[in-house]
Amino acid sequence: PRFMDVTQWTRPAVLGMAGYAPGEQPQAAERVIKLNTNENPYAPPQAVLDAMGAALGDALRLYPEPDSRSVREAAARAYGHGLQPQQVVAGNGSDDLLTIILRTFVDPGETVAALDPTYTLYEPLVTLQGGRYASAPWREDGGLPVDELAGLRAKVIFVTRPNAPTGHVCALSEVVELCTKTQAHGVVVLDEAYGDFADDHGLGLLPDCPNLIVTRSFSKSMCLAGARIGLGFMSVAIAEQMHKVRDSYNLDRVAQVAATAALDNLDAYAPLIAKIKSERARLTAALRQRGFDAPESQANFVLAKIPAGALDGRGWLAALRQKGILVRYFGHDPRLSDKLRITVGAPHENDALLAAVDGILVG
Ligand code: PMP
Questions:
Q1: What pLDDT, on the 0 to 100 scale, is given for residue 26?
Q2: CB neighbours (10 Å) of residue 202?
Q3: pLDDT in tens, 217-251
Q4: How far, in Å, is the centroid of ligand 1 from the Cα of 224?
């Protein structure tokens, strides 16, 4: 075939992008301990697997519910707070919800804001939408710079709580203050992908904050990263707009069945989440003993500053990789280049990580 220069018709916004680099995803054949993308170390509860298995039959001929109605009804039942199904939008992963939000509210040239550092997907999504990405640093104490953010007059402001990759949480009262101060300009998205691992969450704020959207992921606390499920909670009025924008069948039939079964079996998740929280405390303490600076995290990962020594961040990443352990490294960001983000695994995985760290420290 003749060479064709496709860049001549590619959108400039796309040409200018480096492309989002998600964490390495080795598939089953490769035996590694995978602590790099904050998945859950445990299998989904049997009731969820059984429901998914039962969905693998003749019904796959048929389209799923276009608006994931059963999932949204199950979510309203499961989460309380007086939530109605009309206040819920389901996404193909919570990343899908982020895209839907931007496509609903942001025209080319309009501003979208987030904190710094934060989830690295927001910026490419905003760029693709033709928006202008602005960021404000977290306050020194981990709080929200409310006035600075409000001053940006953004259409959408992303607040990640717990934040990635730091694992810290801002005060919920600051989220309310931000919503109040930005009501005239746009929506505040409280990204609670890791919310189930935190001490508190923002669903209870919705009645007081008409411009608030809370997003949740089933990839972390619900052991379903492979099924791609996320939920957004918001006012009925916002949900109506977002439903016009999302793909008609954005959750496949098996994912919808999985989501409903997971929501109907929240009790089965409680011990798994408790285990991850207690392992988080153990891992944090053990890393500190070994000279890492690891602040408290309210997520299912720990951001650990490497001890002074022969290896830099990239060196640690490679040394752990050689011992079959994957962690995440954000070397492009100077404030993060001396840190590793380590997902909290099952006890034997955390033990393996600590043993590998000991091996690397003795050289
Ligand atoms: N938000 C944050 C802060 C995340 O870290 C992630 C996971 N990479 C997501 C959203 C997206 O999760 P998912 O699309 O798997 O639900």
A1: 82
A2: 23
A3: 999 999 999 999 999 999 999 999 999 999 999 99
A4: 12
Residue ranges per structural domain of the chain: 6-43+269-362, 46-266
Q: 347-362 vs 266-289: helix axis angle to the nearest 10? A: 10
> The whole model's pTM is what?
0.96
Ligand 1 pocket at CB < 6 A: 93-95, 119, 160, 164, 191, 193, 217, 219, 225, 230
CATH architecture of the domain covering 6-43+269-362: Alpha-Beta Complex (3.90)
The Å distance, Cα 177 to ligand 1 centre, comes to 25
Nearest-CA residue for ligand 1 atom 12 is 94
pLDDT of residue 28: 67
Q: Which atom of ligand 1 is nearest to the CA of 163?
A: 3
With the most atoms of ligand 1 within 8 angstroms of its CB, the residue from 37, 40, 94, 201 to mutate is: 94
CA gap 243, 89 in Å, rounded: 7
How many Å lie between the centroid of ligand 1 and the Cα of residue 6?
31
CATH class for the domain made up of 46-266: alpha beta
Helices in the chain by DSSP H: which ranges? 12-15, 46-55, 69-79, 94-105, 122-128, 146-151, 172-182, 236-245, 253-264, 266-289, 313-322, 347-362
pLDDT in tens, 139-191: 999 999 999 999 999 999 999 999 999 999 999 999 999 999 999 999 999 99
